[in-house]
Write a structure and sequence with these properties.
The structure holds 2 protein chains of 2 kinds.
Chain A (H helix, E strand, L loop, with lengths): L1 E5 L3 H13 L5 E5 L11 E3 L4 H14 L2 H11 L6 H14 L11 H23 L3 E2 L4 E6 L6 H11 L4 E6 L4 E5 L4 E4 L4 H5 L1 H6 L5 H14 L8 H7 L15
Parallel strand pairs in A: 1-2, 1-3, 5-6
Antiparallel strand pairs in A: 4-5, 6-7, 7-8
Helix pairs in contact in A: 1-2, 3-5, 4-5, 5-6
Chain B lengths: L1 H13 L31 E2 L5 E2 L1 E5 L26 H13 L5 E5 L6 H18 L5 E5 L6 H10 L2 E3 L7 H7 L5 H24 L11 E7 L6 H14 L4 E6 L18 H15 L5 H4 L13 H8 L6 E2 L5 H4 L7 H10 L7 H7 L3 H4 L3 E2 L11 H11 L16
Helix pairs in contact in B: 2-3, 3-4, 4-6, 7-8
The chains are: A alpha/beta, B alpha/beta.
Bound molecules: iron/sulfur cluster.
């Protein structure tokens, strides 16, 4: 077995795929640099991300895979699942060898695994689109902090860009320490460390728009009174809104 | 001032909540004017403690009403607090909730004050302001008031994504008994009018791309279940009529929540008929997505849905001569009729079997309720089960007691 180290970027991964073929590396174990202890057995190969090599792999895959199946590779790489690179590599091998499209061969364990991870990512993306709650600041910025199970910000970007086109907004991932910022023209990734500001709840409050508290409290009022007590079903409630998301939900926080 | 708004919101959302429709899907309104919002995917932003999806700000403009429908909390004779929003208040609430990602849009209904036109005019005004002054592209569902003028209906369709009139009572007789001021034709007339307008609009859109789209998410209605003696047969044939003849997008079934001591109605404290409501939704799904005909689900001999098992399993047990089905060769349409296999799994089976012959372990991995499906299928590996009687199979499945087969009270359910 040979460990193949890459820089965790999308292009880096495809460069790694290229070099495994190029150097005929047998039994590769693709890992992100710094992520895992270096294997004591077998050799090690460090990949230097090379756009030209990556592009050749991407081109080839685009011939072999549908646009959706190709996008799924990207989604899996955002999932941060241990071992995902190796599954993807086997999947790519399988796709390149096959004479027909293999992307719906759910009897193949790697195809099925990818499909399941994509489904999980989809669920998390969907939850973020549903559960993000913006707060409005005095200067008209709508901001939200999140801590998604997977790195889904790149996947929700378009949704928020399309929808909130007439307000400035910021969605910040506190676990991965970066955010998306929309300035009324375009979305950019920002990596300023907001942690200190965000932890200081009191000073944060002074930054809020004067009507922010009003609308939060109206939303809580609404959430309470739209419930039909005679139909109460907490099991279903929690199934749909898992507790770990409550900390972001205005309606679930005390006023 | 904020207290007053909060009180109004309490009263007017409380009064609106018995309308169970919550969908914000079916529209594809884009944000092309760099305004606020779009109506594309129908997100549930929260779930109430009763497990229902919160997607729209669902409120009444007012709960003052000149009518006295026995099943309604806002009826004239009910001694409750009354309130009314101004048009601007509704607009502000909608915009501010939407901007914070609390909601997908607005579902606005109203008690009838003064007369139908006067009420409808104000509902339309809210929608118009949102669309034109605020460039709001989120979802708007307007309740249309029976008896309002055709011009107002037309205008409502211009701004709203969805329109609805709730028939509430499944039959004319029940309506006469419980809502004597209402007349069934007054409800069907606007539905038919809108249906015609929408069909015409689709024709126009084919000719002129730029023609404005009327109510892209179509029409819906709601029937109250369990307040009156109708059978499931009557209710489902009514739904069938709405889907086929008026092209409604959705029919909602609302298990009656007792709100009155009126002796024409179930007493206060009577449990809400959740299971029946759930079975009706399942039957509705079978009609809309599984290509079942209504007479395959209920019949004059069996006018009630089985409370213990879902209507798809019921159907299969009545039609055992069609089974077992060979997973590796059967038609897609038949595969999705197998108990334990939903539309998604049926599709996956048909995809996967192109690559290799499927056995039980494949089905398990694909996520099929194998314990249920096994009585109805043959695969490449599993032995064919002996011929059981319908009652035996029903017993086996019920005895498994897996919580998955317990009735689930959500109208969004996808169990089959
Ligand atoms: S007209 Fe509507 S609001 Fe008025 S009592 Fe009847 S159902 Fe209730």
């Amino acid at each position: 077995m040979q460990t193949v180290l890459y820089d965790s970027s999308f292009e880096g991964f495809f460069t790694a795929v290229f070099e495994i073929y190029e150097y005929k590396i047998k039994d590769p174990d693709i890992q992100q640099q710094g992520a895992a202890p270096v294997s004591l057995f077998g050799g090690q190969h460090t990949v230097h991300t090379d756009i030209a090599k990556a592009t050749r792999v991407i081109k080839k895959l685009e011939e072999k895979l549908s646009a959706d199946a190709f996008a799924n590779i990207y989604r899996v790489l955002l999932s941060e699942q241990p071992g995902m690179e190796n599954v993807l590599f086997r999947y790519i091998q399988y796709a390149l060898q096959a004479t027909q499209s293999i992307e719906t061969d759910y009897s193949h364990p790697d195809v099925l695994w990818i499909q399941q991870v994509v489904r999980k990512m989809g669920r998390e993306k969907h939850r973020m689109e549903a559960f993000i709650r913006f707060l409005k600041t005095k200067d008209g910025l709508f901001y939200a902090t999140v801590e998604p199970d997977f790195n889904v910000l790149p996947l929700i970007r378009k949704h928020f860009e399309d929808r909130y086109a007439d307000q400035r907004w910021l969605i910040y991932d506190t676990r991965r320490k970066y955010g998306l910022y929309y300035d009324l023209h375009s979305v950019t990734e920002v990596t300023i460390d907001f942690a200190a500001t965000l932890n200081d709840k009191a000073s944060l409050r002074t930054l809020h728009d004067e009507q922010e508290d009003l609308y939060q409290s109206l939303w809580r009022t609404y959430f309470g009174s739209t419930n039909i007590q005679a139909r109460r079903n907490m099991k279903l409630h929690i199934q749909h809104m898992p507790r770990r998301y409550w900390k972001y939900l205005t309606e679930k926080l005390p006023g | 001032m904020s207290e007053r708004i909060s009180e109004k919101l309490t009263i007017l959302s409380d009064a609106a909540k018995y309308d169970v429709s919550c969908a914000s899907s079916g529209s594809d309104r884009k944000n092309e004017n760099k305004g606020l919002g779009n109506a594309s995917n129908g997100i549930c932003h929260a779930y109430t403690e009763d497990g229902r999806c919160v997607s729209l700000l669902k409120i009444l403009l007012t709960n003052f009403c000149i009518y006295d429908c026995a099943y309604c909390i806002s009826r004239k004779s009910n001694d409750i607090k009354r309130a009314a929003f101004t048009v601007q208040e509704v607009v502000d609430l909608t915009m501010n909730f939407y901007r914070r990602n609390y909601i997908e849009g607005l579902f606005l209904s109203s008690g009838i004050f003064k007369n139908a036109d006067y009420t409808m005019e104000r509902l339309v005004l809210v929608a118009k302001k949102l669309r034109t002054e605020h460039r709001f592209n989120g979802y708007i569902h307007l309740k249309t008031i029976p008896g309002a003028s055709d011009e107002l209906m037309q205008e409502a369709a211009l701004y709203a994504d969805r329109l609805s009139v709730n028939v509430e009572m499944p039959t004319r007789e029940s309506l006469r008994l419980l809502a004597p001021d209402k007349n069934r034709n007054d409800m069907l007339k606007p539905m038919r009018y809108i249906d015609k307008a929408l069909t015409q609009n689709q024709e126009e859109k084919k000719l002129f791309k730029k023609a404005p789209t009327l109510a892209p998410a179509g029409q819906s209605t709601q029937m109250v279940i369990g307040a009156t003696p109708e059978t499931d047969l009557q209710i489902l044939y009514m739904s069938h009529f709405f889907y086929q003849k008026i092209h409604l997008k959705r029919v909602y079934y609302s298990g009656y929540v007792p709100v009155s001591n009126d002796n024409r109605l179930p007493a206060m404290g009577t449990p809400v008929p959740f299971i029946r409501e759930n079975r009706l939704y399942q039957a509705d799904w079978l009609m809309r997505f599984y290509h079942f005909r209504v007479d395959e689900i209920v019949s004059p001999q069996e006018p009630l849905l089985d409370a213990q098992i879902d209507p798809k399993l019921s159907w299969a047990l009545r039609n055992l001569q069609l089974f077992p089905v060979d997973i590796n060769t059967a038609d897609y349409m038949l595969i999705m009729r197998i108990p334990g296999i939903g539309i998604q799994s049926a599709r996956k089976i048909c995809e996967a079997r192109k690559f290799s012959r499927l056995g039980m372990h494949h089905l398990q991995k694909i996520g099929i309720a194998v314990n249920r499906a096994k009585y109805f299928i043959t695969t490449s590996d599993a032995p064919v089960l002996k011929d059981y009687q319908p009652m035996q199979i029903k017993e086996f499945i019920l005895n498994e007691g897996s919580s998955k087969y317990q009735p689930n009270f959500s109208p969004q359910l996808k169990l089959f």
